[in-house]
Amino acid sequence: MIKKLQRKFILITAASLFIVLAVVAASINIINNYQLKKNEDEIIDMLCGAGGKFPDLFRDTMPPDDKEFGGDRMPDEKVFENSKEFEERRDRFRNSKNINEETSYQTRYFVVYYDIYDEIQKVDVSHIAAVDSDQAKELANEVLAGESEQGRTGNYRYVITGSDSGKMVLFLDVRNNDSTKSRFLLISIAISVASWVIVMVLVILLSRRVVKPVSAAYEKQKQFITDASHEIKTPLAIISANTEVIEMTSEPSEWTESTKNQIKRLDGLVKDLMRLSRMDGEQKHTEFVEFDLSEETAKAAAEFEAPARTHNESFELDIDEDIKIVGDSAQIRQLVGIFCDNAVKYCDEGGTITVSLKPHHKGCRLAVTNDCAEPPSGDLSRLFDRFYRADEARTRQGSGGYGIGLSIAKATADAHKAKISCTAENGRITFAVTFK
Predict the structure, then answer these.
(1) CATH code, 326
(2) Residues 9, 151 within the same domain
(3) Is residue 332 assigned to a domain?
(4) Residue 348 in 3-state DSSP?
(5) CA 20 to 30 Å from 389, out of 5, 25, 77, 429?
(6) Among the three residues 159, 179, 199, which one is the final residue of a domain in this structure?
């Protein structure tokens, strides 16, 4: 159980850390990509507004050579004819953290100008070395043939703007930003993976110390159960001997019979406690072998046919033949006995108990079902907790039991890496174990 708790702690920590690092890495990359795109948008906006050229935003007036290109007016030049709008744009870009005096020298772009008849008038490739005039014209014609006025083609983002004098197609080279995004992504992934590995190594090394208090408490509990069980055996033996002496010296009475019944119950409790406390330790040394589960289930269930008839209950077997598993046959017989004993005790008067064993996916499913008009309320999985008793379902007088039998069944299922469950529907309750 301690090893299982330790593994669960490591797995939960690993999953939680992975989720946190993934969210952090994703958030950082999203913010980085957003900032890079925002920078691109600002540059595109500035170039489009200035007719495809960088205005000197850090001067108080617009330079004369920004109003003409080769003697002709730019398509969007009229934006800058209004000094107030120029001042607004200048102030906006001056306050931008992404644009400074060096931006015009760092930005790679080219522009193709068209007249009102969609004929190319000029091509400006002076700000890029990767594209010549012919390539620029070809790219511009391709994007003009499309339906979108902005988008991306290859390593370039493009924007088509127009005015009364014609159109302008601006291409901004974004390959440096793409490279930055890729490097940033790889670095963030590498750092996240390295951080995850380092933390997980520390968690694995320190996990024993984390579960050490639980392990110590568990060992003390096992030792207490063992010591208490041995201590209880002696007074039980004395009480049993005294009861027999009383019956020998005088006739048996209801009081001696009651005493003997309680001795029997306490003796059963002591044995169950001892068995439960030893299961973890014994499991480490138990060698599982293949055996016929169908045969063992039938033998174990057959012992409860007579008690079921005594309670006026029908007892049915629905067991497929030749179903085999690898495990401990003695433990499985005990598990079947616990399920059947529980069903006999708590089946409705005149009800039916069914023991079934069927193939299930790649394994098999062992189930014991009995009629139960008023099944336990709440979480049925709690029935497998030690000493848990659901009063609504266990009202029969003298049914016995201390709520420990199903705990032993669960421990047996866990030892065989099987799934144990309890379901209630349509007036019937089913305890089942699914073997892989």
Answers:
(1) 3.30.565.10
(2) yes
(3) yes
(4) coil
(5) 5
(6) 179
Instruction: Specify the 3-state DSSP secondary structure of 32.
Output: helix
- The pair of structure tokens assigned to 82 is 């209004």
Assign residue 70 a region: left if phi > 0, alpha if psi is -120 to 50, beta otherwise?
A: left
Tell me if 18 is assigned to some domain: yes
What lies within 8 Å, CB to CB, of 278 at 6+ separation is none
204 within some domain: no
Of 138, 159, 179, the residue at which a domain comes to its end is: 179
- Asked whether 1 and 218 are in contact (CB, 8 A), the reply is yes
Write out the residue range of the structural domain in which residue 47 sits. 2-179
Give the pLDDT score at 392.
45
> In the numeric block, which tokens belong to residue 25?
């890495």
Name the DSSP letter for residue 381: G
Whether residue 42 contacts residue 93, with contact meaning beta carbons closer than 8 Å, is answered with yes
Asked whether the beta carbons of 10 and 165 are under 8 A apart, the reply is: no
Angle between helices 175-249 and 2-49 (to 10 degrees): 160
Question: Other CB atoms closer than 10 Å to residue 383's CB: what's the count?
Answer: 22
- Shared domain for 10 and 154, answered yes or no, is yes
Q: What are the beta bridge partners of residue 112? A: 123, 169
pLDDT value for 282: 53
Mean pLDDT by 10 residues, the chain (436 residues): 81 94 96 93 85 66 41 42 55 65 87 92 93 95 91 94 87 95 96 96 88 76 73 83 86 85 79 68 68 94 90 92 92 92 90 94 93 82 73 46 75 90 91 94
Q: How far apart are CA 52 and CA 161, in angstroms?
A: 10
Sign of the alpha-carbon torsion through 201, 207, 209, 210 = positive
Cα–Cα nearest to 360, from 412, 415, 433, 271: 433
3 state DSSP class of 172: strand
Alpha helices in 56-95 (DSSP H): 83-94
CB of 288 within 8 A of CB of 327? yes
End-to-end CA distance of the chain: give it in Å, rounded: 20
Q: Enter the tokens of residue 270.
A: 């002591």
Residue 86 belongs to a domain: yes
**25 exposure class (CB count in 10 Å sphere: 0-12, 13-18, 19+):** buried
Extract the tokens encoding 26: 């994703």
Number of domains in the chain: 2
